[in-house]
Write a sequence for this structure.
């Protein structure tokens, strides 16, 4: 099993960690990427090594930013591992722009391979948990096809969030319905850990034990006012939620588990 002593995450809000428990109070250690970094840090520690992590992901980032500026910054840090999650903010891209995204991804993967960096790339989410997202499904599938085709070309493993059946349930989504909930972030982190051959996993709640939320008309109206209207306003102003937001770890920092996370992971192993 290969050991990774440094890891850089690039992406949008899903990699930044929005929706995870505690994110609004402290972004650190939140999100599937930080949760993956926690597992990697434990493995490194068990082998007597330190571990360093950078998370360059910023909410609202499109593929052009992720595969351009963020990828260049990641390469400058010379990590062992890079994860890429891009595309959720590009669902509206027409065919011509999808071709530009493909060119950016091909060039980016070539640069990472040349640098000798191990890469894991996620395909796009398939937002079937709300009927209102139905118009996005074909666009999500089109971007996933592009990502998977290039991943195969470069022999890069795919983190297949597109086909995770559980993500069709709203319990795996945060209140805003566009970011993973803690359950979703944990599941995706565990899938990534499996791809990398790690033995440790975050404890997951069995689907039968989830609350199985139901969205009433009142809740839907609240959602429109709280989450949808601000998004539409930003879209009309051609801005993003990431304006003024800095990466939570812009450089490789020494990264280790929080004590509360170690306790949770130990209990999972004991069970």
């Amino acid at each position: 099993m290969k050991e990774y002593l440094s890891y850089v995450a690039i992406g949008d809000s899903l990699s930044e960690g929005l929706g995870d428990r505690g994110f609004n109070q402290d972004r650190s250690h939140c999100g599937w990427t930080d949760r993956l970094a926690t597992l990697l840090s434990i493995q490194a520690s068990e082998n007597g090594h330190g571990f360093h992590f950078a998370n360059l992901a910023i909410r609202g980032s499109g593929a052009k930013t992720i595969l351009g500026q963020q990828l260049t910054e990641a390469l400058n840090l010379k990590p062992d591992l890079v994860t890429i999650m891009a595309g959720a903010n590009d669902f509206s891209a027409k065919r011509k722009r999808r071709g530009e995204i493909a060119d950016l991804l091909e060039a980016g993967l070539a640069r990472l391979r040349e640098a000798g960096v191990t890469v894991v790339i996620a395909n796009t989410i398939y937002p079937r948990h709300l009927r209102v997202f139905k118009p996005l499904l074909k666009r999500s599938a089109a971007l996933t096809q592009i990502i998977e085709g290039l991943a195969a070309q470069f022999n890069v493993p795919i983190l297949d969030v597109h086909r995770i059946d559980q993500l069709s349930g709203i319990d795996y989504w945060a209140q805003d319905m566009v970011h993973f909930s803690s359950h979703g972030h944990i599941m995706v982190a565990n899938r990534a850990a499996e791809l990398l051959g790690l033995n440790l996993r975050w404890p997951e709640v069995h689907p039968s034990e989830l609350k199985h939320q139901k969205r009433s008309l009142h809740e839907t109206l609240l959602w429109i006012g709280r989450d949808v209207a601000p998004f539409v306003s930003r879209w009309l102003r051609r801005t993003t939620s990431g304006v003024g937001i800095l990466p939570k770890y812009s450089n490789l920092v020494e990264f280790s588990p929080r004590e509360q996370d170690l306790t949770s992971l130990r209990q999972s192993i004991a069970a």
User: Anything to note?
Assistant: The chain is about 45% helix and 10% strand. Residues 6-265 form a domain with the Rossmann fold fold (CATH 3.40.50.1110).
